[in-house]
């Protein structure tokens, strides 16, 4: 009897720990649900699901093959819709670019056809699930596909006013910006400004064609998780944003740093900027 109670207690504890782990994972997830897919703004990957069933009268291997083909076609259709819902900047989504340009629409269609199949699941009732993966960034990713969209550049900070980096200053490997409580939304092309409206960072400063490029900015739910993202290295600079940039009729995707934080950001090594070693921590 005592052993049974101990076993039940241990089993209950394990189940509670598993549930707690799942809840914590969901709380810190950077995945944004869009239609039949999700955008993972931390890893820079899009995952899309498609489903297919065999037609009536099909059996055996033929039925499985036809169901898989239907699921694959459904996944490709869903991927187009998910991509259209990707936030590009404060005022636009991919769908805006698709509507304005036949060239981009064709490129998006081709991009979807090149999606990687990472999972095929056969259900007991004959239904097949196909999971596609597409990259947000990288040389073959969505960021590069859009050819650097036009962004709002207010003013370039006068180079004569930028203080040279002291030789004894810390050798930072990246930058983490705490933007919690600012209602910030993740986007492909976020920007950073100082309080006078001078541009500090945007997609045109990043070398998108360099090996290993993923996205302009990575996102995380906590400082701890941000520090684990490889792009910021072992010694990232930590800054706090003073506000998000409010855009009429748009969403908050851009940040503002106060004068002290902006000065420190300007003094970062150019390699950090070029390789997009930047992470935003958001709610």
The main sheet orders its strands as 1-2-3-7-6
Determine Rg (CA atoms, Å): 23 Å
What portion of the residues fall into strands of 2 or more residues? 15-25%
Shape descriptor reads elongated
Total DSSP helices:
8
Report what the structure shows.
The protein has 283 residues and is an alpha/beta fold. It has two domains: 31-145, no CATH class; 155-281, no CATH class. Helices cover 33% and strands 24% of the residues. The chain has helices at residues 2-28, 60-84, 94-100, 102-113, 142-145, 223-227, 259-266, 270-274, and strands at 31-34, 37-40, 45-52, 87-89, 92-93, 116-122, 128-135, 155-156, 174-178, 192-194, 198-201, 218-220, 236-240, 243-244, 255-257, 278-281. The chain has a five-stranded antiparallel β-sheet. α2 packs antiparallel against α4 (102-113) and α3 packs across α4 (102-113). The relative contact order is 0.15. Mean pLDDT is 84; it is low at 6-26 and 159-168.
